[in-house]
From TrEMBL, chain A:
<keyword id="KW-0479">Metal-binding</keyword>
<dbReference type="GO" id="GO:0099128">
    <property type="term" value="C:mitochondrial [2Fe-2S] assembly complex"/>
</dbReference>
<dbReference type="InterPro" id="IPR015424">
    <property type="entry name" value="PyrdxlP-dep_Trfase"/>
</dbReference>
<dbReference type="InterPro" id="IPR020578">
    <property type="entry name" value="Aminotrans_V_PyrdxlP_BS"/>
</dbReference>
<keyword id="KW-0411">Iron-sulfur</keyword>
<dbReference type="InterPro" id="IPR000192">
    <property type="entry name" value="Aminotrans_V_dom"/>
</dbReference>
<dbReference type="GO" id="GO:0044571">
    <property type="term" value="P:[2Fe-2S] cluster assembly"/>
</dbReference>
<keyword id="KW-0663">Pyridoxal phosphate</keyword>
<dbReference type="Pfam" id="PF00266">
    <property type="entry name" value="Aminotran_5"/>
</dbReference>
Automatic annotation (TrEMBL), chain B:
<dbReference type="GO" id="GO:0016226">
    <property type="term" value="P:iron-sulfur cluster assembly"/>
</dbReference>
<dbReference type="InterPro" id="IPR045297">
    <property type="entry name" value="Complex1_LYR_LYRM4"/>
</dbReference>
<feature type="domain" description="Complex 1 LYR protein">
    <location>
        <begin position="7"/>
        <end position="65"/>
    </location>
</feature>
<dbReference type="Pfam" id="PF05347">
    <property type="entry name" value="Complex1_LYR"/>
</dbReference>
<comment type="similarity">
    <text>Belongs to the complex I LYR family.</text>
</comment>
<dbReference type="GO" id="GO:0005739">
    <property type="term" value="C:mitochondrion"/>
</dbReference>
<protein>
    <submittedName>
        <fullName>LYR motif-containing protein 4</fullName>
    </submittedName>
</protein>
<dbReference type="GO" id="GO:1990221">
    <property type="term" value="C:L-cysteine desulfurase complex"/>
</dbReference>
<dbReference type="InterPro" id="IPR008011">
    <property type="entry name" value="Complex1_LYR_dom"/>
</dbReference>
């Protein structure tokens, strides 16, 4: 139930990869013998499969090690290439850590970054975006589907706004590609990050889409043999690339089927929990969201205690990258969730292989433990007595 | 080329389900069975013989994938999930 962190490998994907882990081990960049040609053909087929899923040209797809690398490449690459004329970047407060961290790094190199706030529902305000543009803005980076609360940003509108101003638009679509329809031309996206292991593909592979017309130019982050049009040196891992390609093809075929089923299961989970337990808040916009990522706050329950109680169910209070710390999620704080509710949130992920039984088991355990934890909580008792917790003056010892 | 007969399609359907039943992973097993059932139901009214042939070929290819993946799955088996405990199947 934590498919936002990672997804299991689809058997169809593994089946396509295995020959390249055994018989066909050639270096796809070797031009002098058949081993290389076989691998190159497989890699190019995979590139086409990725491109087809997002409506791009295969030449616009660069294989990377994952969405984190793609995001680094997009932000640092574009910013550095145009640094002589443009020194400003716009992003949002709810981006993934690797985007925010890349931005922090660029700030130390002398770039200016605007971190747009988001509204209560987790979406950005387009008016604020328009107001944030400066004459020397080179790049706007907004993620398509948020990894913690599942909200879907108005990518189409943002694309229009950026294109009208001739500013490049990057989107981190790791949680969106293969799950909702994405078309880079229709949405006017100039750069897009894709991850393999969020779409039932292997870990350690991803891709970045880089538009050719109008051309987006990047300064490579990694120096070396000049593979991938010189943008990402290093041998492309053929089996992983093949796996990403196969995952994209399967995702394209199964998108409608998966989406329908995931929506049903999500509905089942939310209705059951909401009808049994009071004071549950759903974080993020109700309408503009990807249904497979549900973030609920259980008031008067400590999220981590609930996760401990539900230890036989794989759940998380936020993203895997930050799950080691007890700090409440910065995404929830950005949407204005109160500190106490941010501490009591749990993210439920539903994917291709989730079953009704798993949803029901999770719901039943969750309801049982929320009730139990609340019975132990003095705060809950006070709420039952009608005391407004916000009116209490806590003394510090 | 003659289209596959009803009996052939049904035989393929049963073979797919039987093979999927052998997945040791709970999630793969339930997914495969569900997906096969839904796909055959969705396409049961198709009359165009070319289309039928195309789907039958796809199903045959998938049967081979399932067969190989079941074998791999059995080589690396893991603990059962809580869902699969007594009372839950």
């Amino acid at each position: 139930m934590d498919v936002q962190a990672t997804t299991p490998l689809d058997p169809r994907v593994l089946d396509s990869m295995l020959p390249y882990l055994t018989a066909y081990y050639g270096n796809p960049h070797s031009r002098t013998h058949a081993y290389g040609w076989e691998s190159e053909a497989a890699m190019e087929k995979a590139r086409r499969q990725v491109a087809d899923l997002i409506g791009a040209d295969p030449r616009e797809i660069i294989f990377t090690s994952g969405a984190t690398e793609s995001n680094n490449m997009a932000l640092k690459g574009v910013a550095r290439f145009y640094k002589s004329r443009k020194k400003h970047i716009i992003t949002t407060q709810t981006e993934h850590k690797c985007v925010l961290d890349s931005c922090r790094f660029l700030e130390t190199e002398g770039f200016r970054v605007t971190y747009l706030p988001v509204k209560k529902n987790g979406l950005i305000d387009l008016k604020e975006l328009e107001a944030a543009f400066q004459p020397d803005t080179s790049l706007v980076s907004v993620m398509t589907v948020n990894n913690e609360i599942g909200v879907k940003q108005p990518i189409h509108d943002i694309g229009e706004i950026c294109r009208a101003r001739k500013v490049f638009f990057h989107t981190d679509a790791a949680q969106a590609v293969g799950k909702i329809p994405m078309d880079v031309n229709d949405m006017k996206i100039d750069l897009m990050s894709i991850s393999g292991h969020k779409i039932y593909g292997p870990k350690g592979v991803g891709a970045i889409y880089v538009r050719r017309r109008p051309r987006v130019r990047l300064e490579p982050v990694q120096s070396g043999g000049g593979q991938e049009r010189g943008l990402r040196s290093g041998t492309v891992p053929t089996p992983l690339a093949v796996g990403l390609g196969a995952a994209c093809e399967v995702a394209q075929q199964e998108m409608e089927y998966d989406h329908k089923r995931i929506s049903q299961l999500a509905e089942r989970l939310v209705t059951k929990i909401m009808s049994e337990v009071p004071h549950v808040v759903m974080n993020g916009d109700r309408e503009h969201r990807y249904p497979g990522c549900i973030n609920l706050s259980f008031a008067y329950v400590e999220g981590e205690s609930l996760l401990m109680a539900l230890k036989d169910v794989a759940l998380s209070s936020g993203s895997a990258c930050t799950s080691a710390s007890l700090e409440p999620s910065y995404v929830l704080r950005a949407i204005g969730t109160d500190e106490d509710l941010a501490h009591s949130s749990i993210r439920f992920g539903i994917g291709r292989f989730t079953t009704e039984e798993e949803v029901d088991y999770t719901v039943q355990k969750c309801i049982q433990h929320v009730k139990r934890l609340r019975e132990m909580s003095p705060l809950w008792e006070m709420v039952q007595d009608g005391i407004d917790l916000k009116s209490i003056k806590w003394t510090q010892h | 080329m003659a289209a596959s007969s009803r009996a052939q399609v049904l035989r393929l359907y049963r073979a797919l389900l039987r093979e999927s039943q052998r997945f040791s992973s709970y999630n793969y097993r339930t997914y495969a069975i569900r997906r096969i059932r839904d796909a055959f139901r969705e396409n049961k009214n198709i009359k165009d013989s070319e289309k039928i042939e195309e789907l039958v070929n796809k199903a045959k290819a998938n049967l081979e994938v399932i067969h190989r993946q079941v074998t791999i799955g059995q080589l690396y088996s893991t603990q059962k999930l809580v869902i699969e405990g007594p009372g839950n199947t």
